TrEMBL record:
BTB domain: residues covered: 28-97
Cited Pfam families: BTB, zf-TAZ
Protein name as catalogued: BTB POZ and TAZ domain-containing 1-like
One cellular-component annotation, GO: nucleus
Biological or metabolic pathway of the protein: Protein modification; protein ubiquitination
PROSITE patterns registered for this protein in UniProt: BTB (PS50097)
Record-level Gene Ontology MF annotations: calmodulin binding; zinc ion binding
GO terms, biological process: regulation of DNA-templated transcription; response to hormone; response to hydrogen peroxide; response to salicylic acid
Keyword hit for Zinc: yes
Provenance organism: Olea europaea subsp. europaea
Keywords: Metal-binding, Ubl conjugation pathway, Zinc, Zinc-finger
Annotated SMART domains: BTB, ZnF_TAZ
Length: 349
């Protein structure tokens, strides 16, 4: 006989576990039967209030009840059942107990509907996940409907698949549960393509950011001038230190110089001129103040769009929209101080 009953006598004096009236514990009227033949006496009122499933088992009417009602909890180690009973009485269990019987306690808490214990088991099992136990825990999480734990297992598994593949758990799974194996492989496949999608998106985002920065530099060169190129009415050599986006700005200045001097031009098939032409067109597409704008061809491009009357093609429109949103994002992610400076003096960048 286990000491739980004795323990309960002690607990009967505690204010937390006194379902009986006047602080007196009712009779031990149920017996839990475990796999090892271990019997744990308990109070039906306590079990019923902690677990609706046990409650419904106990309430079932019994005609000639002479002896104590027996409730079998089989298939898990007797000590795990003891810890389970302890939790039903006290809503407590130690980290050590969770570490040792977490898997069994998760199953018990799921079957007997004890959400608080289920929560604690899920957390403890998540923290104790290893390459060795991940396959077992995954299967249990699936059976016990513990989605958070399931996802944790899947992530660990797909990040360490080479090592997991070598474990006994994985080999057993392959032989006995091919549907779970398939699920895991599908998850890994989706995770991989999700990663690829994110990578591609980042690359694209980087490109739009570069374009948006080029747009800032173009405006800045044509308005206030930079180290070697400036507006026609301003001498660039007077200009001081390199600006804050000088790596982009410098490249753009070289491109502008080339554009001004090139003999082949766009129509002659010059790729650099073509690039400059596209940048000027892009600027015009996002420029909000064409009347005051000092960027060359800004108004001309706007006029041409109006005259054509049919707007730009879909790809160009998409490009413009992406550059505008990249610009917005980079403005929003600037440190506060910098943003304030930009707001006070929007032309300087
Ligand atoms: Zn500059
Ligand atoms: Zn050229
Ligand atoms: Zn403009």
């Amino acid at each position: 006989m286990v000491s739980i009953a004795a323990e309960m006598k002690v607990k009967a004096n505690s204010p937390f576990s006194c379902p009986g009236e006047g602080g007196e514990m009712p009779e031990l009227d149920v017996q839990i039967i475990t796999s090892g033949g271990l019997r744990i006496p308990a109070h039906s009122s306590v079990l019923a209030s902690a677990s609706p499933v046990l409650g419904s088992m106990i309430k079932r009417p019994q005609k000639h009840r002479i002896s104590k009602q027996k409730i079998p909890i089989l298939g898990v180690p007797p000590d795990a059942v003891s810890v389970f009973m302890q939790f039903l009485y006290s809503f407590e269990c130690s980290e050590k107990q969770l570490e040792k019987y977490g898997i069994h306690l998760l199953a018990l808490s799921h079957v007997y509907l004890v959400p608080l214990l289920k929560q604690r088991c899920t957390r403890a099992l998540s923290e104790g996940l290893t390459i060795e136990n991940v396959v077992d825990v995954l299967q249990l999480a699936r059976l016990c409907d513990a989605p958070d734990l399931y996802l944790r297992c899947m992530k660990l598994l797909s990040n360490n698949f080479k090592a997991v593949e070598q474990t006994e758990g994985w080999k057993f799974l392959q032989n006995h549960d091919p549907s779970v194996e398939l699920q895991i492989l599908q998850f890994m496949d989706e995770a991989e393509s999700r990663k690829k999608r994110i990578r591609r998106h980042r690359q694209e985002q980087g490109l739009y950011l570069q374009l948006s920065e080029a747009m800032d530099c173009l405006e800045h060169i044509c308005t206030e001038g930079c180290t070697s190129v400036g507006p026609y009415d301003m001498d660039p050599s007077k200009n001081m230190d390199p600006c804050s986006k000088f790596s982009t700005c410098h490249g753009l200045q070289l491109l502008i110089k080339h554009f001004a001097a090139c003999n082949k031009r766009v129509n002659g098939g010059c790729l650099r001129c073509k690039r400059m032409w596209q940048l000027l067109r892009l600027h015009s597409s996002i420029c909000d103040y064409p009347d005051e704008c000092r960027v060359p061809l800004c108004r001309q491009f706007k006029l041409k769009v109006q005259q054509d009357g049919r707007g730009a093609d879909a790809r160009w429109t998409l490009l413009v929209r992406k550059v505008v949103s990249a610009k917005t994002i980079s403005c929003l992610t600037l440190p506060k101080q910098k943003r304030r400076e930009n707001l006070n003096n929007p032309k300087s960048s």
